[in-house]
Amino acid sequence: AMSNLKEQLLDNTETGLEKGAAKTVQPVPPEDQTWWRCTHAFGFVLGGVTFWLGTFCYYYPQTLFVQNLSAWLYIIGSCGFMYVDTQEFFTFTDDKMLRLNISMSMTGSFLYIVGSAGFLPAVMAKTMEVGIWGFIGGSFAIGVSQMWKVVRISRSGRFPEKDTLTALGVEGGACLGAWGFFFGTVYFWQGAAAGAAFQVVLLCWMLGSSFFTFGGLCLTYRHAVMGVC
Asked: Do 83 and 113 meet the contact criterion of CB atoms below 8 Å apart?
């Protein structure tokens, strides 16, 4: 009887510990939650694809409708990039240097929104400076920020592990995308607004858009297939 009592007490103690453990289960971090990863990847891919489509519009006759469509595609894409940066800024709050790095990308995305609005026909009829300098400044900020991220990953990661390579695909894709728009817009600012020279501008923008999209697809692969942030 004494042995049975001891066993019952032990069972009750273990059950109590299990209940206590259940009460102290740590919540799932935001970056590991499905909604966070889905919207994170969607915002990035949305930015790349809409930039690509917005640039492709320049290959069509520039009617008022096409010009408005192109600008709004850029605005939507810039908002997608801004969402991703803001999401990261308010999620990864422990590392101050990482947060500073992300804030540079946020600044660039904000300037992209301003620059995209600057390409609306109503704005361009008054001045082209808003669109041009919004994209030059935004591209420079994002380009430098992404270069910082690439260096950080290269120093801390291991090669040729998939985690490191896909992370470089995400940040490197955004880096090359930003510099594509930087050099293309600088050339456009220098007067390459028509003929063969403008085709070079469009090539830079298309390459930039493709690299942005590649980065978004790498991020989607990390979230959906690898299950990492």
From this structure: no
The C-alpha angle 42, 44, 46, rounded to 5 degrees, equals: 65
**120: region left, alpha or beta (phi > 0 left; psi from -120 to 50 alpha):** beta
Q: What's the full length of the chain, in residues?
A: 229
Are residues 153 and 164 in contact, defined by beta-carbon separation less than 8 angstroms?
yes
pTM over 0.85: yes
Residue 197 structure tokens: 């020279």
**pLDDT of residue 209 exceeding 50:** yes
Alpha helices in 33-128 (DSSP H): 34-56, 64-89, 96-118, 121-124
Torsion of CA 92, 100, 82, 77, to 10 degrees: -120
Cis peptide before 121 (omega within 30 of 0): no
Q: State the pLDDT at residue 26.
A: 83
- Both tokens of 119, joined, read 């390409």
Taking residue 52's Cβ as centre, other Cβ atoms within 10 Å add up to 18
